[in-house]
Specification:
The chain is an all-alpha fold. It has one domain (about 15-105): Four Helix Bundle (Hemerythrin (Met), subunit A) (Up-down Bundle). The protein has helices at about 15-40, 45-75, 90-95, 100-105.
């Protein structure tokens, strides 16, 4: 076997809209489950921390809804900062991201 031969099949650069929707649905369902678990938790001295966690989950859910809208209008996968394609690896990890890594650093 040559060292130049890849060990795995190359992955397609872009995924289909159906696959993107599946990833976003999974992310949404995960966050909704986490939010429900936080809501069902009995009040404790850490209420401030739980409140912050709930707020973070709600922000992510809004980001996911915005990502669904970008899929529908055809702008999904394009960085809102530089208008270049967001790398497929980043979209796989954070399917609702709006920015490439460089623009996220500048925005955040």
């Amino acid at each position: 076997m040559s060292l130049d031969t890849p060990r795995t099949e190359p992955r397609p650069e872009r995924v289909t809209a159906h696959e993107v929707r599946q990833r976003l649905e999974h992310a949404r369902n995960t966050r909704l489950t986490q939010l429900q678990a936080l809501t069902a938790t009995e009040p404790t001295a850490d209420d401030h921390l739980m409140s912050e966690q709930k707020a973070a989950m709600e922000r992510v859910l809004k980001e996911i809804d915005a990502a669904f809208a970008r899929v529908e209008d055809g702008t999904y996968g394009t960085c809102l900062g530089c208008a270049k394609p967001v790398p497929a690896e980043r979209l796989e990890i954070l399917p609702y991201t709006r920015y490439c890594v460089a623009c996220q650093r500048r925005a955040g």
